[in-house]
Amino acid sequence: MKNDVVPVQIRGILPANSGCALFVGNDEKVFVINVEPQMGTVIGMFLRDQPKERPLTHDLMQSVFKGFGITVERVVITDLKNSTYFARLILSQTNEVARKIVEIDARPSDCLALAAAQKKPIFVHRALFEQVEDMSGVLDKINESGNEPE
What we know:
By secondary structure, the protein is an alpha+beta fold. The protein has helices at residues 37-47, 57-67, 108-118, 126-131, 136-144; strands at 5-16, 19-25, 30-35, 70-81, 84-94, 99-106, 122-125. It has a single domain (5-144), classed as Roll (Bifunctional nuclease domain). Strands 3-2-1-7-4-5-6 form a seven-stranded mixed beta sheet. β1 (5-16) and β2 (19-25) form a beta hairpin. α1 (37-47) runs parallel beside α3 (108-118). The longest helix has 11 residues, at 37-47. The two termini are 31 Å apart.
C-alpha cells in the first residue's frame, strides 16, 4: 500500500459560495474537495476538538463502532470522476478469534469527518494526487491575507 498512496492532512477549511472548500494535502501539494457547508462545520469541530451540545451523526457512528469493537484504521481518497471525489473507509474489528478488515465506499466528507474525529491517517491514491491541481498558492494567499481557514 505504501507506494500506491500519499499521506495527507486537512490543511484548511474555507467557507465558499456553495459549500466549504476543504484544503487537503501535504508539503508537496494541496488540493480542494468541496463539501456541504454543514460538513465543513462538522469537520472543523472535530479538528478543533470542539465540544458539542448534542451528539452529531459522526459521534453516533463512533459510538456504534465502539460498541462493536470497530476502529477506523485509515481513510483513502481514491478517485475523481465528473468533479466528484470518491473515498474508502478502512475499518478494523478484533475479537477473541480474529481480526477483520472491512473497506467501505463512502463520501470523502464522511470519511474525513471520521478521520478528524478519531485522529486517524488520511491517504490519497498516488495517481489521483498527481492528477489534481495544486492549490498550495491559493491556501498560502488566504493565510497571508488574514482570512485564515479553520
